[in-house]
Amino acid sequence: MAGPTVSAGSASRGDYDTLIDVDAEGVDLGETDLEFHDFHTGDNVQGKIPAGGQSRLYEPPLSLENDPNRPLSIWTIHFYAQFFNVETSDVMQRCIYALYPRVSFVDTVGDNPDLYGPFWIASTVILVLFFSSTLAGAIASHVAGVRYEYNFGLLSAAAALMYGYTFIVPILLWGSLKWYRSEHARLLECVTLYGYANTIWVPVALVSISPIEIFNFQTIANVVRWASAAVGFAISTTFLVRNLYPVLNSTEAKTSRILLIVVVLGHMALAFVVKLVFFAYSIDDNSN
């Protein structure tokens, strides 16, 4: 805004003061001229972001999944991902401990029981049982001189058997322990124990193929199958009892004995089902 002009001939000291006064009073110092604009950029990570600003789309607060102090919801993937936080070497080592139950498996696992091993082992046993049963049936049919018919129902039976025994039975055991007020019963540890206990059925199924049956030694082949099932039952039962006994013993004496007998009988039933459903062949009629 331009101030009033003063001629050169009349520019006295008083006029000069008047000129300055007029300029000071006449200048418009409105908010528009003195407003400081704050330009936010994407690189600015300090200070508070105004509510409703677009920066929230690109700079969200710490996610709930990465906050260790906030419990995860069972409806999120991150809740179940923590149970699969194991390395392949850890799973293989635990499988070895299940095959040679000389040390406490619970102490070895510590605070990191997992679901990856039980699921992977159960899936492997299902495929191995179906493959071994199919191959053993083909051998028996070849010896009998009849055509072998593939039975894909065995695959469904193996899946129902192994997945059910790996996950449903431990849940029932854990529920029983909670019912009898056991303070040491943990569901994830029960599932982990039963899952790794099934490792033995992989070599049992492979041994039960019994190629000696090709030479018409059916009786010997059947003895080998029963023996392998018995060994598998003995090793896996020892593994289960050794690691479950401290938990079972936390209940009353009578209750712990009953639960121990139930665990052993349940595992014996599994061994019989594996033998009779998947490896009971007859050369005469090729029946399962």
UniProtKB/TrEMBL annotation:
It comes from the Eukaryota. GO terms for biological process: vesicle-mediated transport. Residues 99-272 form the Yip1 domain. Pfam families: Yip1. Keywords: Membrane, Transmembrane, Transmembrane helix. One of its GO terms (cellular component) is Golgi membrane. It is found in: Golgi apparatus membrane; Membrane. GO terms for molecular function: small GTPase binding. The chain crosses the membrane at residues 119-140, 152-173, 193-212, 224-245, 257-281. It is a multi-pass membrane protein. Belongs to the YIP1 family. This is Protein YIP. The lineage of its organism: Eukaryota, Fungi, Dikarya, Ascomycota, Saccharomycotina.
